């Protein structure tokens, strides 16, 4: 955790315990820092698991192994290493992951592929096996910790711990989803994610949980960007212990399936927004709402082109309603657009309509809107019914300071 | 022109006069600044023209009109307005361009489509017709100016005037290419360019000139990026007056065709590098050489993914040999790559080979290399014979300062 907390930080929510889930933290000492950096979460037998992973071709061994293991659908434990991503470390990195899986599987008397491992931090340094072994050993005997401690322990350049909560009534029972997530830079998940973990007591079949998680991902994690850089380690896993005792959900027609899906979407959206709000150097949270595109996916791509434009992001940092830069970003997105039908607004006030600045455009309400912490940009392409919302943060001196100094 | 000159600036070269080309500058007063902002270049009858333009869908009227006009292959004049890009200004913007074309065509007794107009500056404000008319009127009667004055006059956020020179022997005669270019931010031409003008006394058929310019563009302007943002006004035009008196070149087998093509490539490469060296906030010029890709275009795309990565660019700004960020950028490029065959070096020293950090990697020579103004990154994908070089600059506090303040 960094010292200077993001001005967009939210207080950590009061996350309840989830039956069948027990988090612990320990010090592996992956970096020379006086904090816990290994998180171990024990899961009850029969816990279902689903996951989405980075599409970065140069992904870590953790991602490769996790992507395979999630297919069998069951999990008994999660281990998260902070301070070393173990990515681009060849066979030595892979051996370290397998050692952790074996150590935990021996302890729980489960199979290795029921143990999920993630690592986050610097790329290119093999995870030291001795530190990992001692860290896991300590975590296995540590007293259970709070969600907030776990959320702090998985963080690296994050400036605040991030948690999310949602509930739904399923089969007459209230089920709970508790989630923790880390992420601040190298954030442009595009069809994947950062490190995020969702725990629920809901009973749900792994295949259907995967289907719902993938759908939620498309609307949430795939719609955020901090810096357009896609990490080699992005992972979101959802664990369902089934301890709520509901009739297991296994299809979209099942009682409670819609309620659970809505709660899962809600918690994923909260998590995605928290990552943007801790974007490196972020001073403002930006929502970009695109309408009138030829379809929803085209709207999302136009939104992401705007969200990834350094010129748009610096304009917002400067509280400048520079809609010309938004026009530029729409035009370079590679999606259908017609300059003469394009309209652009800020905070609900149109600045330009149908390809021209509005003659009676009043910049005063827009200027006031841009001074706030939460900024919205509205773009209407005037072509069809496609729409999407994406989220990003502004690009400030803080981003440069953080990233021109990190590592070495 | 900005006050603080880029540390990467080159002195303006001694560009000779080109027979048949006469530059003039005047004050249109597009902005409230005490400098010339309208450039008028008169071209001898029979001058051939070729051009490449932005692919941004929201392009300016200047680009739309120029793209059509270049097809007829002849030019008599060039007018460049600085301080107002006239983009996203609807019919009013188009009328201003047509007024300039008509005014100059009347003066020269030529057709309107032989008058090429470009504008650069803020987006969304229609070019004021009265200022344009008075500016053109002044320019038509102004004394001829130097190339350096013209190069200064087309600039906006540029910190130094940019010129390039090349010669070739064609048909026993030495022909000359003189070029001026402007550009500093919103630079990611990708198949197009910024505002650049090449003047030569060579006799060459317009169609063949276009072919050579497009080929040069692919290797030069399409291989640079400052900030991944593609302008709405990018234009490069080449004018050939034919005054050298050589046998006109009209095909690749013609005497002197190869020499002329090499000189054109050379001048385009010089121009492209100058724009990067004046990249907003640039402190270092970065060359990225990619080899071992499945083909050259794939190598170029991998190179551009690295060149556009904010995390790579800030690492270079911090003189940090953070090759893990290069791995990340290779992996997100969307091109064929194999993590376990990937090698990465800086300034000729390999840091990682075949997917792993080198055991005997000595960071000392790399650290020394990164302290310089010119940095090279080498990436070998280990897959095939495809190779490309691309160029960018580092991402610094200067970029943020420039772009969080500009306009409004």
From TrEMBL, chains A, B:
Mind listing the UniProt keywords for this protein, alphabetically?
Acyltransferase, Amino-acid biosynthesis, Arginine biosynthesis, Autocatalytic cleavage, Cytoplasm, Multifunctional enzyme, Transferase
Catalyzed reactions: L-glutamate + acetyl-CoA = N-acetyl-L-glutamate + CoA + H(+); N(2)-acetyl-L-ornithine + L-glutamate = N-acetyl-L-glutamate + L-ornithine
GO MF annotation, one? L-glutamate N-acetyltransferase activity, acting on acetyl-L-ornithine as donor
A Pfam family of the record is ArgJ
Give the binding site residues for substrate. 156, 182, 193, 280, 403, 408
Q: Where is this site: Involved in the stabilization of negative charge on the oxyanion by the formation of the oxyanion hole?
A: 120-121
The residues annotated as the active site are 193 (nucleophile)
Q: Which InterPro entries match?
A: Arg_biosynth_ArgJ (IPR002813), ArgJ-like_dom_sf (IPR016117), ArgJ_beta_C (IPR042195)
Taxonomy, superkingdom = Bacteria
Asked whether the UniProt record includes Protease among its keywords, one would answer no
Q: Which CDD domains does the record cross-reference, listed alphabetically?
A: OAT
Pathway membership: Amino-acid biosynthesis; L-arginine biosynthesis; N(2)-acetyl-L-ornithine from L-glutamate: step 1/4; Amino-acid biosynthesis; L-arginine biosynthesis; L-ornithine and N-acetyl-L-glutamate from L-glutamate and N(2)-acetyl-L-ornithine (cyclic): step 1/1
Give the site residues for Cleavage: 192-193
Record-linked NCBIfam families: ArgJ, PRK05388.1
Function in brief: Catalyzes two activities which are involved in the cyclic version of arginine biosynthesis: the synthesis of N-acetylglutamate from glutamate and acetyl-CoA as the acetyl donor, and of ornithine by transacetylation between N(2)-acetylornithine and glutamate.
Similarity section: Belongs to the ArgJ family.
Q: Which PANTHER family match?
A: ARGININE BIOSYNTHESIS BIFUNCTIONAL PROTEIN ARGJ (PTHR23100), ARGININE BIOSYNTHESIS BIFUNCTIONAL PROTEIN ARGJ, MITOCHONDRIAL (PTHR23100:SF0)
Subunit field text:
Heterotetramer of two alpha and two beta chains.
Under which name does UniProt file this protein? Arginine biosynthesis bifunctional protein ArgJ
Tell me the organism: Novosphingobium bradum
Lineage, broadest ranks: Bacteria, Pseudomonadati, Pseudomonadota, Alphaproteobacteria, Sphingomonadales
């Amino acid at each position: 955790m960094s010292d200077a907390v993001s001005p967009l930080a939210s207080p950590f929510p009061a996350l309840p315990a989830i039956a069948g889930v027990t988090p612990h933290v320990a010090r592996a000492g992956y970096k020379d820092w006086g904090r816990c950096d290994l998180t171990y979460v024990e899961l009850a037998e029969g816990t279902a698991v689903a996951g989405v992973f980075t599409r970065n071709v140069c992904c870590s061994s953790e991602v490769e192994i996790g992507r395979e293991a999630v297919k069998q659908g069951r999990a008994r434990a999660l281990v998260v290493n902070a301070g070393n991503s173990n990515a681009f470390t060849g066979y030595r990195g892979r051996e370290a992951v397998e050692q952790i899986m074996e150590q935990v599987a021996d302890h729980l008397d489960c199979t290795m592929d029921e143990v999920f491992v993630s690592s986050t931090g610097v790329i290119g340094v093999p995870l030291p096996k001795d530190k990992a072994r001692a860290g896991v050993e300590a975590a296995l005997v540590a007293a259970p910790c709070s969600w907030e401690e776990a959320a702090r322990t998985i963080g690296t350049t994050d400036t605040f711990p991030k948690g999310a909560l949602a509930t739904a009534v399923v089969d007459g029972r209230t089920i709970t989803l508790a989630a923790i997530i880390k992420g601040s830079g190298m954030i442009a998940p595009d069809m994947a994610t950062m490190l995020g973990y969702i725990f629920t007591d809901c009973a749900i079949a792994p295949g259907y949980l995967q289907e719902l998680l993938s759908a939620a991902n498309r609307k949430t994690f795939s719609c955020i960007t901090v810096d357009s850089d896609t990490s080699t380690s992005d992972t979101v896993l959802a664990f369902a212990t089934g301890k709520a005792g509901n009739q297991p959900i296994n299809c979209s027609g099942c009682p409670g399936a819609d309620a659970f899906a809505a709660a899962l979407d809600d918690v994923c959206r909260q998590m995605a927004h928290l990552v943007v709000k801790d974007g490196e150097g972020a001073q403002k949270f930006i929502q970009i709402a695109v309408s009138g595109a030829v379809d929803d996916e085209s709207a999302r791509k136009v939104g992401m082109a705007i969200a990834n434009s350094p010129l748009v992001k610096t304009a917002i940092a400067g509280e400048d309603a520079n809609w010309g830069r938004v026009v530029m970003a729409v035009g370079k997105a590679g999606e259908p657009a017609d300059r003469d039908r394009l309209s652009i607004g800020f905070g609900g006030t149109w600045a330009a309509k149908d390809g021209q600045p509005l003659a009676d455009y009043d910049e005063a309400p827009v200027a006031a809107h841009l001074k706030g912490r939460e900024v919205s940009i509205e773009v209407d392409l005037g072509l069809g019914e496609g729409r999407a919302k994406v989220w990003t943060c502004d690009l400030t001196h803080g981003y440069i300071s953080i990233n021109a100094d990190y590592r070495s």
